[in-house]
């Protein structure tokens, strides 16, 4: 009983669907964990204890609901929920409630998921951090913007959580906290009721402690059983991709990628270096341009009517968006389109790429959520990405790599990521 | 004064910015028109008379605001507004209010736009119609889902209005009501605060009585002055495109396209037939598959918690979405990606395509909003489309054509559409 909160979601769901474990009993293990740890980690903006207990009791009293039967879920605080506040980590939305569920939350509930609470986000899922700490070392950032979701899953306060990525908001915090983060192909999970930052980039995804749990979560949510279990028929062909951001990686991160390549090769994978075509070098700047052109316009109501309640750095960044030249925006969009077309060929016969999930381990300090530059290119390219913990840094913080697949190949990407994660054994 | 409501928005904005016309005086012309006509046309779900008057008076008392200074705007009732209800044409949202503006509405206000009211939408911007009638013949549908926006602009109850298109919800009602409809490139106008149906298709756009007015609206909203005025340096090269839906067109529509081609050629354009590549034939079915896979999931909260308040036909259609096979969804998405890549070559050296905006004139009856099949392919391809009135049917209803451009070429598409509209002279 004491270790129920460390069961995998997959195992727990199986036991609950066989009625060997009650949803309320399982939920209480996480509520106890939250009681013990939340004061230090600060992952939650709101814990919906009573709502979650009521949902769990209802599940115990009724029929087995679906693939997520009884699984507690942490919800990033930019996803609307009819029964809990949605405050987006911003004074603009302090005390804000909505009458409806985000579509993917309604879908998760229908599949038997139990919404446990709202997890801390940076302000409006952009860059100004909020109170969450890295559970591995409390003085280090958990990453962001999905800070609370990554930290809560890492600390076993919830087995599953939702996130969104516009720049690097799923993969980076997953890497910093040592959990699995899954950013699906753009537009796979519906965004209705999830607050936007940049329509052409925003992607809904999930956090879990292993790849099958993440796959189960999305398979259940979307009624898309083919995503689970993530099994690849034979050892994957992996393209080791340093990327044009390689110089930004720490020495430890560089070593992590190289060692992972060798370990996976020993385990039977075909591993070869993949260099991205030359014009991919422009994607990082292009992503920045597209992101801020869009974010500034998307946050118009907040900046215009509530600007005085926003962190000044965010307010100013939004205002700056109107100085981005339309021709730069269009050039960036055109580059992204061209590179999306070119990517399948660049991968050759590789199943997936393996590349750093972040520049290194979580940096010291809580005033920044770290550098998203290893994530921005993939956000712009709309590819599925799965962060997997790959090593530990000298001072005891996780180092993450990401498995990147072709557009729409979520199934293959998850399966390869699971294979990789099992072999790296972190 | 009696004809103020028939001024073009471009002229009115110019006069207002020179202080030759007051925003309140201009607004009152539309309020009078609404008083005279709304009982018959039923374009509005809510008229924000007091809110609009207050905004107009504030504009008259202050500095010139921006490109939209003093222009009244009708807002489709799925766009959130902080000061007027948003009910989505559905009992699910009867009396529903929100605390914030949709991003594009906040941007329009900042540019000086005056939000006049909320226009009638079909239920949740899908297919079940609501009360709006076609101002040309009240027993005919105005089209949908942006029914009220198209009808209100056609009847000069407002000079500008917003809309969204997922299947054919901007271009078709514009054609049926004899106004200009502009569906920009996917993701050009931010969707935050606009209720979603299908993330990979939903596109925000506008209605106006001529192309410069539509271009002014979007240029002002996005702070993107390059879109206005829409001027093409020389007569455009036009690809006359019957499309794979040609058999669905009425004889009158077929004649309209052929005659337009000849008239534009006489006016100096280069006009040549353009056949789309063979695999484009599959796009109509693919669009249907993608749309309903996504709509069913997007409307999850509505169907799960409020299904009894939805029209049964919509509820059932949403449930059906879960029977669409993932492999069919992925095949459809893949076809769309491939055709998006192929389209620029298919256009050759044409600036734009000219193709029917609907199967014919607005059908008799209010129980259906008509057939979107001439729009669905372009919704899936994400291209900019501009509907222009091109002829009148034998029984006095407008017939519309659409000008279709390449992705991101909104500027060229608008300019060519303006050139075409001027030459067709309807």
Q: Describe it for me?
A:
2 copies of one chain form a homodimer. The first copy, chain A, is α/β, with parallel strands linked by helices. Chain A folds into 2 domains: 4-227, Amidase signature (AS) enzymes; 237-281 and 329-424. Helices cover 39% and strands 14% of the residues of chain A. The first copy, chain A, has 14 helices and 11 strands. In chain A, strands 1-3-2-4-6-5-10-11-9-7-8 form an 11-stranded mixed β-sheet, sandwiched between helices. In chain A, strand 7, helix 8 (251-266) and strand 8 form a beta-alpha-beta unit. Chain A starts with 8 loop residues before the first helix and ends with a helix. The mean pLDDT of chain A is 97. Chains A and B meet through helix 4, helix 9, helix 10 and helix 12 of A and helix 4, helix 9, helix 10 and helix 12 of B.
Q: Kindly report the name of the CATH homologous superfamily of the largest domain in chain A.
A: Amidase signature (AS) domain
Envelope shape of chain A: globular
Q: Report the largest inter-chain contact.
A: A-B, 44 and 44 residues
Rg for CA atoms of chain A = 20 Å
The number of domains of chain A is 2
Number of helices of chain A: 14
What is the structural class of chain A?
A: alpha/beta
Provide the CATH architecture of the largest domain in chain A: Alpha-Beta Complex
In what range is the share of β-strand residues of chain A? 5-15%
End-to-end distance of chain A, in Å?
24 Å
CATH topology of the largest domain in chain A: Amidase signature (AS) enzymes
* Helix content range of chain A: 25-40%
Highest-level CATH class of the largest domain in chain A: Alpha Beta
Number of strands of chain A: 11
Which stretches of chain A of 5+ consecutive residues score pLDDT under 50? none
- The SSE string of chain A, one letter per element, is HHEHEHEHEHEEHEHEHHHHEHEEH
Major β-sheet of chain A, in short? 11 strands, mixed
């Amino acid at each position: 009983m004491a270790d129920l909160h460390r069961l995998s979601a997959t195992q727990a769901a199986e036991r609950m669907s066989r009625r060997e474990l009650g949803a309320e009993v399982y939920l209480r293990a996480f509520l106890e964990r939250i009681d013990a740890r939340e004061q230090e980690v600060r992952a939650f903006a709101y814990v919906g204890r009573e709502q979650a207990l009521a949902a769990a009791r209802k599940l115990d009293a009724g029929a087995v609901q679906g693939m997520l039967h009884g699984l507690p879920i942490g919800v990033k605080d930019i996803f609307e929920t009819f029964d809990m506040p949605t405050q987006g980590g911003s004074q603009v939305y302090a005390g804000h409630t909505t009458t409806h569920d985000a579509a993917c939350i309604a879908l998760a509930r229908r599949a038997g998921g139990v919404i446990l609470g709202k997890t801390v986000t940076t302000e409006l899922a952009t860059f100004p951090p909020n109170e969450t700490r890295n559970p591995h070392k409390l003085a280090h950032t958990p990453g962001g913007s999905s800070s609370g979701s990554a930290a809560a899953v890492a600390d076993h306060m919830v087995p599953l959580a939702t996130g969104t990525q516009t720049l690097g908001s799923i993969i980076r915090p997953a890497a910093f906290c040592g959990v699995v983060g899954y950013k699906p192909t753009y537009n796979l999970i519906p965004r209705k009721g999830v607050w936007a930052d940049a329509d052409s980039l925003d992607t809904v995804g999930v956090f879990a402690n292993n790849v099958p749990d993440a796959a189960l979560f999305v398979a259940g949510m979307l009624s898309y059983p083919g995503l689970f279990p993530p099994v690849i028929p034979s050892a994957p062909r992996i393209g080791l991709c340093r990327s044009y951001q390689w110089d930004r990686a720490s020495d430890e991160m560089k070593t992590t990628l190289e060692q992972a390549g060798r370990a996976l090769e020993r385990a039977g994978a075909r591993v070869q270096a993949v260099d991205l075509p030359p014009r991919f070098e422009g994607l990082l700047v292009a992503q920045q341009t597209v992101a801020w052109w869009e974010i500034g316009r998307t946050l118009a109501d907040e900046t215009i009517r509530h600007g005085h309640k926003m962190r000044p750095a965010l307010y100013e960044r939004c205002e700056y968006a109107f100085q981005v030249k339309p021709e730069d925006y269009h050039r960036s969009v055109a580059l992204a389109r061209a590179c999306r077309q070119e990517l399948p060929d660049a991968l050759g016969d590789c199943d997936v790429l393996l590349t750093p999930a972040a520049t290194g381990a979580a940096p010291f300090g809580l005033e920044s959520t770290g550098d998203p530059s290893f994530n921005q290119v993939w956000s712009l390219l709309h590819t599925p990405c799965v962060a997997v913990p790959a090593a530990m840094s000298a001072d005891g913080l996780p180092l993450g790599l990401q498995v990147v697949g072709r557009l729409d190949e979520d199934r293959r990407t998850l399966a390869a990521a699971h294979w990789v994660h099992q072999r790296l054994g972190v």
